[in-house]
Amino acid sequence: MELQILFVLFFPLAFSFRDQIVGVRGKLSCNNRLLAGATVRLIEKNYIGPDVILAENKTDYQGSYVVIGTGRGVLEMSVFLRIFHDCDDKVIPCQRTVSLRVPSTYISRGTTVNNYFEAGTMNMAFRYPDEQRSCTDRIFS
Ligand SMILES: *[C@@H]1O[C@H](CO)[C@@H](O)[C@H](O)[C@H]1NC(C)=O
Fold first, then answer.
1. Which Gene Ontology cellular-component terms appear in the entry (predicted)?
2. Which of 19, 36, 89, 93 has its CA at a distance of 20 to 30 angstroms from the CA of residue 114?
């Protein structure tokens, strides 16, 4: 009897810890050339605790990329696409980096991506408002 009550109370909670998935694809350019070898990362930002790297990939020789991130949780993930690149960057060991929020409607339940966020072609010569520099990424990962 008690066990049944416990099951009824906690089963919905356990069930709500479902798989979540998000897929982003696009292409990077730098002025008038394709930007190969740039790092693209999907990051989950949480209110508490450190950010979580969900997935990472690099742009291919045509500047194209696909990144698919998966996670589990009751709450919907807050996901950012973070790009590291050397377009118009003269400081050799460091990279320019910018984080862009993926619209929450593209974070879905399940284990396959049915609805990719199409980021399109982005010219990374653009100076984004919240751009930063990363000098550790290339050295340590
Ligand atoms: C990484 O990006 C390449 C180029 O778009 C793609 O072919 C490959 O499937 C991607 N790898 C992963 C693990 O998503």
1. cell surface; extracellular region
2. 36
Q: How far is the CA of 67 from the centre of ligand 1 (A)?
A: 7
Separation of CA 15 and ligand 1 centre (Å): 31
Instruction: For residues 16-23, give the mean pLDDT.
Output: 84
Task: Tell me the whole-structure pTM to 2 decimals.
Answer: 0.84
The number of folded domains in the chain is 1
For the CA atoms of 103, 33, 84, 113, what is the dihedral angle to 10 degrees?
Answer: 40
State the Cα–Cα distance between residues 50 and 124, nearest whole angstrom.
27
Instruction: Give residue 138's pLDDT.
Output: 53
CATH of the domain at 71: 2.60.40.3330
What average pLDDT does range 119-136 have in this prediction?
92
Ligand 1 neighbourhood includes 68 CB (under 6 angstroms): yes
